[in-house]
């Protein structure tokens, strides 16, 4: 039997179900539990299960049970109760991801399809409130994991350029990610890019081999999951934010793909926040704008146009980078420092972009509208807003989109990039790849 499905006898009663002429289910209680059915108070960012105890009278047919949360509905496989005199049973089902810093109800319905044809169904349902336990600090990194990442490229030319520049982003030790080592790419020079003062490795050559150029950057990091205490974060005021505005200046300015000063972006902020945009705390404001992104957009794996905030807003759809850019633009327009996080997640070629916004005294709060949109597209629940359990399975290649160095610039650097010079240059192919796995080294 599936490990998430447990139907067991709780206690015995001298009752012969086979002598009953009608079938009946009756909920006795429901509670938050672990996977084994033991009552628990789970931490935010973990997973929770719900256990229901019920009485079954004369039940001879299989039935299903549903567990409905605001962001998901889990339904069991067909349940066939054992034939015996006992008629008290328990069922544990889940998991429910605790990716929202607030309580929510899970409704339990025994036999929602009424396969048993019960006459009285008034006692077939109940609800249980799940209250995740928040950390003691506003932002807590937890459950660290050591990771090994690879970022590779290979470019060949039908007609070689007179000059070729290759940019490869470097991982940065900041926030959830601490870099232990980065190797490979001998002969590359390190440059500091504007406007966000992040480093990259660059090759600048006039001697492109016939076989093209290729390389692999290898990195070992420790990444941590994240969760928040919303009550503490709501205590940060606009005055606190204003005092740190100068240090956050680059994260408040527009970028090519973050058109935070465009009138259409400003109009969305006005509609979402009203005339007094500082009526709520910066945290509550960012949450409101996050829900606005979820309400106005839908995720698509094949977006069109560039991953800009304005393009996302007008089309109402996009992939992870598109949704993140819109959130960042809205925050910046409202006066909240925000930035994209570019990188990838565990596996092969699983590129991903998410976002962060800054609150003084607590740091960069991670959010992931693309993940949230998979659960709730209507913008009703702030899922993955400060609570990202799999952040410890991600690798960041940089923050923000715009990169300028060596008198060259790009609107986005997530993977290796090429610049070539020479009117007769003909590119044959340019392939990039990424991989991320748990670090097996001691």
Describe this structure in words.
The chain has 442 residues and is mainly β. It folds into two domains: 6-130, Sandwich (Immunoglobulin-like), CATH 2.60.40; 135-442, C8orf32 fold (Roll), CATH 3.10.620.30. It is 15% helix and 40% strand. The strands form seven sheets. A five-stranded antiparallel β-sheet has the order 11-14-9-25-18. It has a four-stranded antiparallel β-sheet with strand order 1-6-3-2, with no helix packed on it. α3 packs across α4 (282-296), α4 (282-296) runs antiparallel to α6 (320-334) and α5 (309-315) crosses α6 (320-334). The model is unreliable at 1-20 (pLDDT under 50).
Order of strands in the sheet with most strands: 11-14-9-25-18
Taking the alpha carbons of the first and last residues, their distance comes to 36 Å
Please state the structural category.
mainly beta
Helix content: 10-25%
- Main CATH class of the largest domain: Alpha Beta
Mean pLDDT metric: 91
Q: Could you say which overall geometry the principal axes of the C-alpha atoms support?
A: globular
How would you characterize the largest beta sheet? 5 strands, antiparallel
- How many distinct helices? 7
Q: In terms of per-residue confidence, which ranges show pLDDT below 50 for 5 or more consecutive residues?
A: 1-20
Tell me the number of strands.
Answer: 25
For the record, the count of structural domains works out to 2
**Rg estimate, integer Å:** 27 Å
Percent of sequence in beta strands: 35-45%
Q: Could you please say which CATH topology of the largest domain applies here? A: C8orf32 fold
Shape-level CATH architecture of the largest domain: Roll
